[in-house]
Design goal:
RNA-binding_CRM; RNA-binding_domain; globular; 4 strands; 96 residues; Translation Initiation Factor IF3; RNA-binding; alpha+beta; YhbY-like_sf
Length: 96
């Protein structure tokens, strides 16, 4: 689990990132979870945008993705989800 201080730090790091995935009409599927897991391993911190036509609620999407990728949900702001997972090989972020 992340502490409040760590979440604040990760939010500040994520601020300038652009969403690299979009969840739309198809909602969340195994293939998407696999791709997001790979992206988390490469980058550690990613943004995902939930489109208007997604049938799931953005909080449901966030919960499903963080559980499926075994990552930490940093924040859901508007229709954007921020996820963090410590990378095994490409560790770049130092948490406070």
């Amino acid at each position: 689990m992340l502490t409040g201080k760590q979440k604040r730090y990760l939010r500040s790091q994520a601020h300038h990132l652009n969403p690299i995935f979009q969840v739309g009409k198809g909602c969340v599927n195994e293939n998407m979870i696999k791709q997001i897991s790979e992206a988390l391993e490469a980058r550690e911190l990613i943004k995902i945008s939930v489109l208007q036509n997604c049938e799931m609620d953005k909080d449901e999407v966030a919960g499903t993705l963080s559980k499926g990728t075994r990552s930490e949900l940093v924040q859901v702001i508007g229709s954007t989800i921020v996820l963090y997972k410590e990378s095994r090989e490409n560790k770049t972020l130092q948490l406070p």
